[in-house]
Amino acid sequence: MNRIPIYQVDAFTSELFxxxxxxxxxxxxxxxxxxxxxxxxxxxxxxxxYIVPGGENGEDYALRxxxxxxxxxxxxxxxxxxxxxIFEKLNSSLKAVSFSTRSGRLDVSRSDGGELVxxxxxxxxxxxxxxxxxxxxxxxxxxxxxxxxxxxxxxLAELANETEVRNLDPDMEYIASMAGDGLIVTALxxxxxxxxxxxxxxxxxxxxxxxxxxxxxxxxxxxxANRLGKxxxxxxxxxxxxxxxxxELDGARVKIGGRAVLYMVGEIMV
Length: 270
Prior knowledge:
Oligomer: single chain
Shape: globular
Radius of gyration: 18 Å
Strand content: 35-45%
């Protein structure tokens, strides 16, 4: 029987019970894929991350992410959580860590103040026709609809204001039936210290609403940078738990900064 350490971390928050919880399991070597998926299903969090020392091209670690239903190509909050565990529990001398992933090399740095900064690919969306049934499914009229051009890209709908985003109660069956990787809804922030707000729905991968989503900001940051004519942006994901992200568009990359809090340390027997 394997005894696997597990950490549960609240990501993109400085307060316990905020942000987005992720499980992180450091491994010596990969377990069978069905075991990795079963652990993620048992954890029943939006993401369980697994890290193994040594990446394919000399990175510090290899990293994989699993929802309760599938393995995914990119996850921001579980990358932040994995980095937090490395910096706080596995190798406190590091100031930066690199990962080998399905989305290529990803780097995370740690500031002296404790903020972690993800270096992720920018996935700028392009305008697409409004989908039949979308207005009825979300209950409001979107200003425009966009879609990221990566494989199975996320849809992004800009709404009229923050209140519409906050009050949205969408038809999850409709969103699950959409092609691609879920739906981001976004609008200008009401406060001067917040450039834009968003929510992200991904029922197709077993997540009705993700509390705070780093990968969604790979799409929304290029969009709002172009829309507002600025590259440094303050964002909030206004789910029930909520989270804050400090973002920067840097050419073909998006820098996403946030904090994390350790909730639980345990051990899995498999």
